[in-house]
């Protein structure tokens, strides 16, 4: 585990104090490393004796059939392709920490969201929420302002994102043409939109260093 992740965990624990429930948001463009940081941070917090769960925003992708109906399938991942109302409702329910909350998880290999695939228990003190639009300043996403206790923005340079996105889609055995369409037709434009329309974060990280 990186020393930077350890330091981040220490800062989060210090800020949480005696709070029963503490929500951490990790936002950033596609390929920024949000899910990796979320899982690593969860491991460090768990090693410190803390109870922690990860809540991925990707579970709130609209189904492909709905995206086809809306003409958004080729642009899957844009703000309009998520069920933002349901996501906000779930985050508010999780924040209340007064009941068990079942949340969906996205299966990237099948490109579908699986309902009720993860449990957030009232006993989980730290909830790490990760996703593209947690700090997005446009539309209904702006209603998330103030709901998180600690916010992290991952903002690698565009050329780093480009390389990572190529690696991601080639890993799914796409043709070069199909991978290029994903990278340049959707993911990088989405990434620029995330970076250009973000609210201020408590911590901004370009690239997490050892």
Automatic annotation (TrEMBL):
Keywords: Hydrolase. The keyword Hydrolase applies. The keyword Hydrolase applies. InterPro entries: P-loop_NTPase. It comes from the Bacteria. This is Nucleoside triphosphate hydrolase. NCBIfam families: PRK09270.1-5 (NF006746). The lineage of its organism: Bacteria, Pseudomonadati, Pseudomonadota, Alphaproteobacteria, Hyphomicrobiales. Gene3D superfamilies: P-loop containing nucleotide triphosphate hydrolases. One of its GO terms (molecular function) is hydrolase activity. It comes from Rhizobium mayense.
């Amino acid at each position: 585990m990186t020393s930077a992740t350890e330091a981040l965990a220490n800062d989060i624990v210090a800020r949480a104090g005696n709070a029963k429930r503490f929500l951490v948001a990790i936002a950033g463009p596609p390929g920024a490393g949000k899910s990796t940081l979320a899982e690593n941070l969860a491991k460090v917090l768990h090693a410190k004796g803390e109870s922690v769960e990860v809540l991925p925003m990707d579970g709130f992708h609209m189904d492909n059939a709905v995206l086809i109906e809306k003409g958004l399938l080729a642009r899957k991942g844009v703000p309009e392709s998520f069920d933002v109302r349901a996501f906000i409702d779930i985050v508010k329910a999780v924040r209340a920490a007064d009941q068990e909350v079942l949340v969906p998880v996205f299966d990237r290999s099948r490109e579908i969201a699986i309902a009720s695939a993860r449990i957030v228990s009232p006993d989980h003190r730290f909830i790490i929420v990760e996703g593209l639009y947690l700090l997005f300043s446009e539309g209904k996403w702006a209603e998330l302002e103030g709901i998180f206790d600690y916010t992290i923005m991952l903002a690698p340079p565009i050329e780093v994102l480009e390389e990572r996105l190529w690696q991601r889609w080639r890993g799914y055995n796409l043709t070069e043409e199909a991978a290029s369409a994903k990278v340049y037709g959707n993911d990088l434009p989405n990434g620029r939109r995330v970076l250009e329309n973000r609210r201020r974060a408590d911590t901004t990280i370009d690239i997490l260093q050892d």
